[in-house]
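Re-running the complex after MR caught last week's input typo. The corrected sequence lines follow. Everything else is unchanged.
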Amino acid sequence: MTTATPLKERFTVPIGPQHPALKEPGHFDFEVEGEVVKSASVRLGYAHRGIEKAVESRNWVQNLYLLERICGICSHIHATAYCLGVEALAGVEVPPRAQAIRTLVAELERIHSHLLWLGVSAHEAGFESLFMYSWRDRETIMDLLEGLTGNRVNYSVNVLGGIKYDLDAEQSEAILQGLQFLEARTHHYLEVVTTDALFLQRTRGIATLTRQQAELMGVLGPTARASNVKRDVRVESPYAGYQQFPLQMVVAEGGDLAARFVVRLNELFESYRLIREILANLPEGELTTRMPRRIIAGETISRVEAPRGELIYFIKSNGSDMPARVKVRTPTIMNMTSVVKLAVGHQLADIPMIVSGIDPCFSCNDRMAVINNQAWDWEQLRQYGIEYYQRQNAE
Amino acid sequence: MNTIVDILKILIFPGGMFILLAGMMYEWADRKLLAMLQNRIGPRWFQQLADVLKLLAKEEVLPSGVNARLFIGLPIVALAAALTAALYVPIMGIAPAFSFSGDLIVSIYLLSLMTLCLGLAGSNTLDRFSLLGATRTLTQLFSYEAPFMLALLGPAFLAGSWQINEITAYTDGRWLLLTQPLGFIVALIGLMGKLELPPFDAPEAKTEIVAGALTEYSGRGLAIFKLGKGVELVAGLTLVAAFYLGGVGNPLLFLLKTLGLLVIIAGIQALLTRLRIDQTVGLWWRYGTLLVLVQWMGTILWLRFVA
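Corrected-run output:
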């Protein structure tokens, strides 16, 4: 009576591009046997926006606002990477006060990003209370950023050659108070994620990335530091205010999801400390310096540490008022391989946590995928599309 | 005349309409409590009713590749089973509408029928999330069912009867919670497993398998399943409260007792992380069954040597 096709022992569970586990469009195919994942593959590119190409037809200043919109969570760090690169190309020295405030906002942004991640990961694990409370506390940072810049996201602090917003005593007092509250909360969260027996059942020993594997795959940021790989641009090659205000690198041994929680939460304490230090020793002086409208020809690489890991901008100028090429490499693209690798052998129930464990940002990493090397005209592309869907329907 | 009263009992009170509304109110109370514990605002008091009415008004999509009769019939069977079970339990502390010797076993079975229907509904569709959800639902059924049943049989054992009426007559005024604490814990947690509440919500874990067995359901089918869950919540809470919290009696007091249980359930939901399905099974067979067996052993020894 039933028309159901016979089931194979193994079948593929497609997750995404629309799925409740992923708030952003990515696609994963997990081949499962019962509950255990036997193989995994990832497909990215659903949110490709063509920003790198669009950058080439806008001038240096306009691009700042476009590039800031690559990522909704770490918008400031994208603008910082771009500014640092362009300033290096132009040979402009940015005043120390501007550098310090850049660093301050970057650390505030890191706090907001890590708290967001904590909530998302708890949600993926089915720990809704931690999700709700960590996001409530994250509002503190959002309010501080709004008070500082007028925006909750895309703060637009940077301009080429400096920053836009100064910091007065009242604002710095508000930041200190917010940090005091958050520090107490972070202690609590760290206790929860390291002592809650049921939560540890879902994180300890799950998705363990050994140090060798981490180095081989070139994973970045907190994901790498959780595997005891000492890789942090803020420490390795300090940029902006990190020369004046050095940072302690936070690493953990485990390499599993539990270690990633510990690393990210401990990084919050380091951020709190650094922000307090910057506020106490904020250099006096100008906020901006003069920038030329045309940048002399040349090329540069600008590296910064985004909340998710190392962010690289390659910027090439041909001497005009528009860049010849800007290439962005976001940390997620480097960490994504580890997801596919680590998912194999784990239960399907662990997959959402493994995916969110690298703190993925899908639309940041999406870029053009070269499907075929030969150039097609419209007619050929149309024909390919017709044939493709005919094949799909035949299957 | 008697027939008319019976029909009214089934359709209006304490069965039928009343139990459906009670189910929605209890579910709302659970959601609201959970929301308060999680620092959220939570739904308005009529939210459950609004959800059900909206779903009933919507088109029911029949996915391709399913057995249509099963797809439409399963929710109805599930709700009917839950409603039938509710007729034999002392809803609101009022004597059950119907009663016969051995109705405890029948009601426990009827309450499980809902889970079986969910499992069948999931495996009836071709959707992979539904299939995984169905597998998990049935796996979970086999893990909590035996301890849950044993925990409810503990009071029956003391009362010397398998008739809910007689057991509640025995427990009236006797708080078995104090003498059989392990049985009470297993019964309450077993109820959470039955209702697939967090942390036992692996069968419908939305971050993994969307909505589990019910992924393909929409409109009427989904509404009926939701109603069935509500009825089960009321019936289950009533059974646990009547057996372990000093029997039936004053309806207001009984309402407070069941709400007290709901507060505990909401607290557990807020505190714990979702268990993986293998962890759920391990928990029930390693600890749940053991606890309830220890409870039984204690009861038997007590009856043999003390009483």
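None of the earlier attempt is carried over here. Chain B has a mean pLDDT of 86. The two ends of chain B are 46 Å apart (CA to CA).
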